[in-house]
Design brief:
Largest sheet: 3 strands, antiparallel
CATH architecture of the largest domain: Orthogonal Bundle
Order of helices and strands: HHHHHEEHHHHHHEHHEEH
Radius of gyration: 20 Å
Strand order of the largest sheet: 3-5-4
Number of helices: 14
Low-confidence stretches: 281-299
Helix content: 55-70%
Number of strands: 5
Oligomer: single chain
Length: 299
């Protein structure tokens, strides 16, 4: 958090998440609430750690419940409904070749894998911006880093109450449907990262535009902002004539501290993966996923 470019990097990261939403809207909406974010990353970690020789490994309802219920991140019914939703939207599917309905291993579909990889790559890019590192270049040369780092980071973050249970200012957003998207969008819009007279400002924030962009009702957006306004964290300069919104530094600071927890876990997981894979050797060629946009191919 002491890094002078941390807040600008968070804004860049927030814009990248909005770009991922524009490309994968159904996937992004699925993880735009904290509980489903935790469930999604837990499930993906189970998949990447799957042993093909062990039919009880990988994503199964029982194994997901074991992780999630251990930390109180979701109830048994919520986790079961989540897997059903993932299958209904074709984000996961049955692993081919298994007929034992009792174990029933599952795996992400191609679109889920691509979205998660691009999310991870975007996080590495943010870390590179903070310290001038070459994580993205190394990842593209050694894509197996993703397979090792994502499970490590996911487990650390699920177990860490500093990430799992964000402060009230953040929880008011992310524990509501699509609230994570709204929060990232709001942070990306801040025009003065250094407060002026104790306030940060957002220009031209209109509920109708947010509602249309994120395919949620205007009523839902209005209620979400009303709850945050009731905490005296945001307000309007003149609601009758202006779409100019002020934000208290507490909300910015809480967002930065919460994101710092995530980036710390991801950086540690990345470094652990490098050590495990001994990626200090010659760089290997890597072909990006077929549908990866050209703009995402650069560091």
């Amino acid at each position: 958090m002491a890094n002078p470019i941390f807040l600008p990097t968070l804004q860049q990261g927030a814009r990248h998440l909005i770009e991922l939403y524009d490309r994968f809207p159904r996937v992004a909406r699925l993880v735009a609430a904290q509980q489903k974010w935790l469930l999604t990353h837990a499930a993906f970690a189970l998949h990447l750690e799957r042993d093909p020789a062990n039919p009880l490994s990988g994503i199964t309802a029982a194994r997901l419940l074991e992780i999630i219920v251990e930390f109180g991140a979701a109830s048994r019914n919520t986790a079961t409904a989540f897997l059903a939703e993932m299958q209904a939207y074709k984000f996961i599917r049955d692993v081919p070749g298994f007929t034992n309905r009792r174990s029933r291993p599952l795996e992400p579909t191609e679109v889920s894998h691509e979205a998660m990889y691009l999310w991870f790559r975007g996080q590495m890019r943010s870390l590179d911006l903070l310290d001038g590192g070459e994580r993205v270049r190394t990842l593209e040369s050694h894509p197996q880093i993703f397979n090792h780092a994502q499970p490590r980071a996911a487990k650390q973050l699920i177990a860490d109450p500093a990430w799992r249970e964000p402060p009230l200012s953040i929880a008011t957003f992310v524990w509501t449907e699509s609230g994570g998207l709204i929060l990232d969008d709001l942070m990306a819009r801040v025009v003065n990262l250094n407060s002026e007279n104790g306030l940060h400002w957002v220009e031209q924030l209109r509920f109708a535009e947010l509602s249309k962009h994120f395919s949620i009702s205007r009523t839902h957006v209005r209620r979400l902002f009303a709850r945050v306004e009731a905490l005296d964290l945001i307000g309007w300069e003149d609601r009758t004539v202006s779409a100019r919104l002020w934000i208290k530094p507490l909300l910015i600071d809480d967002y930065a501290r919460w994101q710092a927890v995530k980036f710390s876990a991801l950086d540690k997981a990345y470094r652990d993966a490098l050590e495990t894979l001994n990626c200090a050797g010659p760089l290997q060629s890597f072909t990006p996923p077929v549908n990866m946009p050209r703009s995402d191919r650069s560091g």
